[in-house]
Write a structure and sequence with these properties.
The protein has a six-stranded parallel sheet, with helices on both faces. Helix 2 crosses helix 3. 26% of the residues lie in helices and 17% in strands. The protein folds into two domains: 168 residues, no CATH class; 134 residues, 3-Layer(aba) Sandwich (Rossmann fold). The chain has ten helices and twelve strands. With 337 residues, the chain is α/β, with parallel strands linked by helices.
């Protein structure tokens, strides 16, 4: 990775400047934003596409809480609604339910009208923590049984194969991580055909690069849900001097809280760009985070019309949440929750 590189995939703060043609945002406006496409959320001022910014005006939402929403909460709505296409009353199984994304998936499933919502965790100590986030039942991963309409797997390995067996006819398995660090698991196409099952993948960084409008809509949906009390995030607040401790907690994998150092956050512009927060690592499993640099092999990000329109962002206290960031989990750091 060419240096210098500034990590950070999500932020909150106030808009400092707008790129040409940006509408619906204003300088000084409080916002939450994703910076997952190009990184930069750890800086005092960040730039991101205006589509990836969510205004916070008039919402009962503190900036530190808002900083923990753009990645995990946005992902939860996209995975269940856009990818799994959940229908009211359907059953949902979420692996790594005590993780950052897992804590949001159970609640999002409820908001989207799911019926039975079950979570799995890797150890007994995580059961109660996960149960507080919208799950009817939380079990150890090996004890999962029955049939489900939707299964979300961030763990990989043997869990991925078992997840396929837990799908009901016409069930959908969404793959969105490999926290176990296991070798890739092949999906038998003939079995999918004969049993009427579907397997889909989701990566927020890659999707944000190609479909920023859709991601922005999900981000605003998450922000409004949190402000209305339907979506809860639990955060730890640490001073910037304890940034190393924040990363230690992220890498431990045993914590569902969003954790991060307080820092200046920023944000705003139009297919230009918005700021993010910082206390996470950039995602390894996405497109290039910056032209000419990549953290792992991935397809190049196509250029989009209007993407050159950029805007600077703002300063604001932003406690970045990353207890179970997709970035850390994509690399299997600390193991699954």
């Amino acid at each position: 990775m060419p240096l210098p590189f500034v990590p950070g995939i999500e932020v909150s703060g106030h808009v400092r400047a707008l790129g040409p043609g940006v509408e619906g945002l204003r300088v000084g406006q409080p916002v939450a934003a994703l910076t997952i496409v190009d990184g930069g959320g750890y800086a005092e001022v960040a730039v991101t596409a205006a589509d990836l910014v969510a205004p916070l005006d008039g919402l009962a939402l503190e900036l530190d809480v808002a900083a923990a929403l753009p990645s995990n909460s946005t992902t939860a709505f996209l995975v269940l609604d856009r990818v799994a296409r959940i229908e009211p009353g359907e059953s949902v199984l979420v692996h790594a339910a005590a993780g950052g994304v897992g804590s949001q998936l159970g609640q999002a499933a409820r908001l989207l009208g799911a019926g039975r919502v079950v979570g799995t965790v890797g150890g007994p100590a995580k059961v109660e923590a996960a149960r507080a986030f919208g799950y009817d039942e939380v079990v150890l991963r090996a004890a999962a049984s029955g049939w489900f309409d939707v299964v979300v797997d961030m763990v990989g390995g043997a869990t991925r194969r078992d997840s396929l067996d837990l799908l009901a006819p016409m069930g959908r398995l969404v793959v969105m991580g490999n926290a176990s660090g296991a070798e890739d698991v092949g999906m038998p196409a003939n079995e999918l055909w004969l049993t009427n099952k579907t397997v889909s993948g989701f990566n927020l960084a890659a999707f944000a690069a190609t479909h920023p409008e859709a991601v922005g809509q999900a981000l605003r949906r998450a922000v409004n849900a949190a402000a209305g009390g339907g979506l809860r995030v639990q955060i730890d607040r640490l001073p910037l001097t304890q940034a190393a401790e924040a990363h230690r907690r992220i890498e431990s994998g045993g914590h569902h809280r969003q954790t991060g150092p307080e820092s200046a956050a920023l944000s705003s512009t139009r297919r230009g760009q918005t700021g993010r927060d910082s206390a996470r690592e950039p995602s390894c499993a996405g497109p290039r985070l910056r032209e000419g640099s990549r953290l792992c092999e991935a397809a190049p990000r196509p250029r989009q019309a209007g993407r050159a329109t950029r805007g600077a962002v703002t300063r604001g206290a932003a406690t970045r949440g990353a207890g179970a960031s997709p970035a850390a989990r994509a690399r299997g750091r600390g193991g699954p929750a």
